[in-house]
């Protein structure tokens, strides 16, 4: 497994007005890696949805909650984590512990409706959810063609 060449972590108050801060940061990071404008829009929608769900559901009864957003930058992909527990986390530890989301799973992250998770899964290449003291949504987006190229065998003519 390739190691991230940069890791950026931000904590924001669990308030809707801070979603835009993450969207702007994400745009800059994704642009630096080389994502297209369309891919950057997909990333912004998916990450915004994950943060919005944390704002609406994780801290419904508590004031002053935090959301931690982590960005792991690679040469060929961007991994983004959104955690509603407000705790700083170890990227490698979460990667080892996290399991794939299954449609039969009990994802508290999307207690109401489930449309948000469908949207996130349709825009991202990989989505995993980890539930412990809070919920961590782990999303991966590959640079265009990177995932396909690594899985396709060459056909000779």
From TrEMBL:
Keywords: ATP-binding, Kinase, Nucleotide-binding, Serine/threonine-protein kinase, Transferase. InterPro entries: Anti-sigma-factor_SerPK, HATPase_C_sf, HATPase_dom, RsbW. It catalyses: L-seryl-[protein] + ATP = O-phospho-L-seryl-[protein] + ADP + H(+); L-threonyl-[protein] + ATP = O-phospho-L-threonyl-[protein] + ADP + H(+). Residues 12-141 form the Histidine kinase/HSP90-like ATPase domain. The keyword DNA repair does not apply. Its EC number is 2.7.11.1. The keyword Hydrolase does not apply. GO terms for molecular function: kinase activity. It comes from the Bacteria. Negative regulator of sigma-B activity. Phosphorylates and inactivates its specific antagonist protein, RsbV. Upon phosphorylation of RsbV, RsbW is released and binds to sigma-B, thereby blocking its ability to form an RNA polymerase holoenzyme (E-sigma-B). Belongs to the anti-sigma-factor family. NCBIfam families: PRK04069.1 (NF003144), rsbW_low_gc (TIGR01924). This is Serine-protein kinase RsbW.
């Amino acid at each position: 497994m390739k190691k991230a060449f940069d890791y950026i972590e931000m904590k924001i108050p669990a308030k809707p007005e801070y979603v835009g801060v993450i969207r702007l940061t994400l745009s800059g990071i994704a642009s630096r890696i080389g994502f297209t404008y369309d891919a950057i829009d997909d990333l912004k929608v998916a990450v915004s949805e994950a943060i919005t769900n944390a704002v609406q559901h994780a801290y419904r009864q508590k004031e002053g909650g935090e959301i931690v957003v982590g960005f792991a930058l690679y040469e060929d992909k961007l991994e983004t984590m959104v955690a509603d527990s407000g705790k700083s986390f170890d990227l490698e530890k979460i990667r080892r512990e996290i399991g794939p989301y299954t449609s039969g799973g009990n994802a508290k992250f999307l207690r109401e409706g489930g449309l948000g998770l469908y949207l996130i899964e349709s825009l991202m290449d990989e989505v995993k959810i980890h539930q412990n003291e809070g919920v961590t949504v782990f999303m991966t987006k590959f640079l265009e063609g990177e995932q396909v190229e690594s899985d396709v065998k060459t056909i000779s003519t």
